[in-house]
Amino acid sequence: MDHIALFTETSRACSKLITQRYSTSFTLGIRTLDTRFHLPVYAVYGFVRWADEIVDTFHGHNKAALFQDFKRQTYEALEIGLSLNPVLHAFQDVVRQYGIDREFIDAFLYSMEMDLDDHAYNQSLYEKYIYGSAEVVGLMCLRIFCEGDTAMFDRLREPARRLGSAFQKVNFLRDIRSDYEERGRVYFPGVQYERFSDHVKQEIEADIRADFDAAYAGIVQLPRAARLGVYLAYVYYLKLFHKIRQLPAARILGERVRVPDNTKLLLLMGSYFRYRLRAI
C-alpha cells in the first residue's frame, strides 16, 4: 500500500470512529448495508457531523470563524483532492469517487451557517434549511447507493429528499425544548414555543406522516445492497415518531423522547426478517 492510500484508509477509519462515537443508531444502520458502502457512508456522516459540531457545540469559541475555516478547507480539499483534516480528506475522496454533486455540499454548508444566527423561520426559509441540513445528506448517500446509475438516482431523488425531510422534522419535534432553551430556535414556521399546543403538534405530525409515506415508496426500489440499512433507519425514526404522537404537547416540552436500545434491537430483527422474506 502506498502512502497516499494509507493516509486515505486512515482518514476513512477516523470517520468511522466519529460515527460510532456520535450515533449508535446510524452506525447500526450502516452495518446492515453491503460492506462496500460502509466506509463511503461513514465519510459522509463524519463530514456532516463535524460541521454540525461547530455550529451547535463549540460555545465560548468564535464559531463563525471556525466554520468559515472549515468551509474553506472543504472547498480546498475538493479542489486539490487532498486535506490534512482526515474527515475532509475521506469526504472529498468519496465525492470524487461517486460524483456527489457540488450543489448538495453548497446547500448543506449554507444551512449549517444559518445556525450561527437566530432566524425566524417562515415557510420558504424552513424548506431551504431542511433541504440543506437533511435532504441533501440523503441525496449524497443515494449517489453512493446508485453507483453511477443516473436513471435510478433521478427516479429515487424525490423519495430520498422526503426521507431526509421526515427525519429532520422528527428531530425538530423531539428537540423543540432544547432547541429553544439552548439555542433560541423554533424551526417550525409560525410556531411560538410558548403557544405550542396539541393542535399545532398534530398539524406538524400530519406533514411528517406524508413525508414518511412518500419516502417508503422509494425505499422499496433501492438496490438490495442498500435497502435494509435505509429501511432500518426508516423504521427507527417511524418508531420514534409514533412515540411522539402518543404524547401530548406538554410532555414533548418536558422530556426528550427516545427509543430504548432493546427496542432498536427488536426493530433490527424485524427489519432483517422482512428483508430476508423480500417483504421490502
From TrEMBL:
InterPro entries per the UniProt record, alphabetical: Isoprenoid_synthase_dom_sf, Squ/phyt_synthse, Squalene/phytoene_synthase_CS, Trans_IPPS_bact-type, Trans_IPPS_HH
Protein known as: Phytoene/squalene synthase family protein
Key words, A-Z: Transferase
Biological classification of the source: Bacteria, Pseudomonadati, Bacteroidota, Cytophagia, Cytophagales
